[in-house]
């Protein structure tokens, strides 16, 4: 199995949309900056925490390969952030509004996507999807989370989760496992059931533009610090709520609506010095899938 298998199945599910991202096809660009606290320096010698402000290129998006996805759907929203430090080095973040991923491995996720394809009669078989979920329980935590939480009322009124484990590495080579999340300073505001019925399919980009007329929107970048026993290779599971949470800095979103994020590949394995990927197989395969999607869309495929 390779990253290309995912591109194939995304294109089968959503149809071909030349020049568009094969995942998270619908989205909006934004720009801002990241200001670190002192805390990151305790764990990592990354310039992200020691060299002041970084410039932020951001993209908010709807999950899936459909560029016309409904923004009231019970599906994840995504954020891509490319942080460029004073010395020119780059750190990417690409996370979802769900704290977990629908499968403990690329194989389980690919199998789930395949059950969503129409059968020979041209129908999506709901009982096949239920059976697959039953046989592969690691697909359930995200499904249950999406049923229990209405979608956000704005791209900036919801938490985003890095989902995978990463490592901080300090100057002595000491590693600390963590998972990142972005938490809006103003708190979360989700759609009501009535709004989910009434709102049009497209409102999020416009809402973001309107909100930014009032001034920047601030997010805290937090790290959940893992314990020895916390798994690093299963993105379908959260670590216990009791884990220590530290604030790494503030992401301020200043403006939106240009095309500056289009030529960006928010590959989540492009990390600053002092931060390393874990052994999560889903994290690993993302780089190939993103590179293929990036190459295709920039060449008009
Ligand atoms: C096997 C697992 C996954 C596959 C195959 C996959 C595939 C993709 C692809 C092909 C794109 C479009 C990339 C581009 O054209 O630049 C994309 C975008 C994205 N994915 Fe994934 N993804 C996976 C898992 C995840 C996970 C675990 C997260 C969150 C932790 C995530 C968050 C995002 C976000 C936020 C974007 C939009 C980035 C942007 O705006 O450019 N994905 N994904």
What structural class do you assign from the helix and strand content?
alpha+beta
Number of strands: 10
Task: Give the SSE order as H and E letters.
Answer: HEHHEEEHHHEEEHHEEEH
Number of helices: 9
Distance between the ends:
22 Å
CATH homologous superfamily (4th level) name: Catalase core domain
Overall, the morphology is globular
Oligomeric state of shown chains = single chain
Over the alpha carbons, how many angstroms does the gyration radius reach? 19 Å
Low-confidence runs: none
Helical fraction: 25-40%
What CATH architecture would you give? Beta Barrel
- CATH domain fold name: Catalase HpII,  Chain A, domain 1
Number of domains: 1
Q: Average pLDDT value?
A: 98
Q: Which CATH top level class fits?
A: Mainly Beta
Major β-sheet annotation:
10 strands, antiparallel
Question: Can you list the ligands bound to this structure?
Answer: protoporphyrin IX containing FE
Beta-strand portion reads 15-25%
Based on the model shown, name its key terms:
single chain, 27% helix, 10 strands, catalase, Catalase HpII,  Chain A, domain 1, peroxidase, globular, metal-binding, 9 helices, alpha+beta, Catalase_core, binds protoporphyrin IX containing FE, ten-stranded antiparallel sheet, Catalase, 301 residues
Question: Your description of this structure?
Answer:
- There is one protein chain.
- The protein is an alpha+beta fold.
- It has a single domain, classed as Catalase core domain (Catalase HpII,  Chain A, domain 1).
- 27% of the residues lie in helices and 25% in strands.
- The chain contains nine helices and ten strands.
- It has helices at residues 3-14, 40-43, 47-50, 106-115, 126-135, 140-148, 193-198, 204-212, 281-298; strands at residues 26-36, 54-62, 77-84, 90-96, 160-161, 166-169, 175-184, 217-225, 245-256, 275-277.
- Strands 1, 2, 3, 4, 5, 6, 7, 8, 9 and 10 form a ten-stranded antiparallel β-sheet that branches.
- Helix 1 (3-14) packs across helix 9.
- The chain starts with a helix and ends with a helix.
């Amino acid at each position: 199995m390779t990253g290309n298998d995912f591109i194939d199945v995304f294109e089968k599910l959503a149809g071909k949309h030349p020049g568009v991202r094969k995942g998270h096809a619908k989205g909006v660009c934004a720009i801002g900056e990241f200001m670190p606290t002192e805390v990151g320096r305790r764990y990592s010698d990354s310039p992200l925490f020691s060299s002041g402000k970084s410039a932020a290129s951001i993209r908010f998006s709807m999950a899936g390969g459909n560029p016309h996805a409904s923004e009231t759907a019970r599906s994840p929203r995504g954020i891509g952030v490319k942080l460029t430090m004073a010395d020119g080095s780059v750190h990417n973040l690409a996370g979802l509004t769900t704290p977990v991923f629908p499968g403990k491995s690329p194989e389980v996720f690919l199998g789930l996507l395949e059950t969503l394809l129409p059968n020979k009669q041209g129908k999506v078989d709901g009982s096949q999807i239920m059976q697959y979920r039953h046989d592969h329980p690691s697909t359930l935590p995200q499904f249950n989370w999406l049923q229990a939480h209405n979608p956000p009322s704005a791209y900036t009124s919801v938490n985003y989760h890095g989902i995978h484990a990463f490592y901080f590495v300090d100057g002595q080579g000491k590693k600390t496992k963590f998972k990142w999340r972005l938490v809006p300073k103003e708190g979360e505001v989700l759609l009501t059931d009535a709004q989910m019925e009434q709102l049009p399919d497209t409102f999020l980009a416009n809402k973001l533009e309107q909100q930014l007329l009032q001034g920047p929107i601030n997010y805290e970048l937090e790290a959940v610090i893992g314990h020895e026993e916390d798994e690093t290779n299963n993105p379908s599971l959260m670590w216990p709520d009791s884990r220590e949470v530290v604030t790494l800095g503030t992401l301020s979103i200043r403006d939106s609506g240009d095309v500056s994020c289009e030529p960006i590949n928010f590959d989540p394995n492009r990390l600053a010095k002092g931060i390393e990927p874990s052994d999560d197989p889903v994290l690993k395969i993302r780089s190939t899938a993103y590179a293929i999607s990036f190459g295709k869309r920039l060449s008009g495929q």
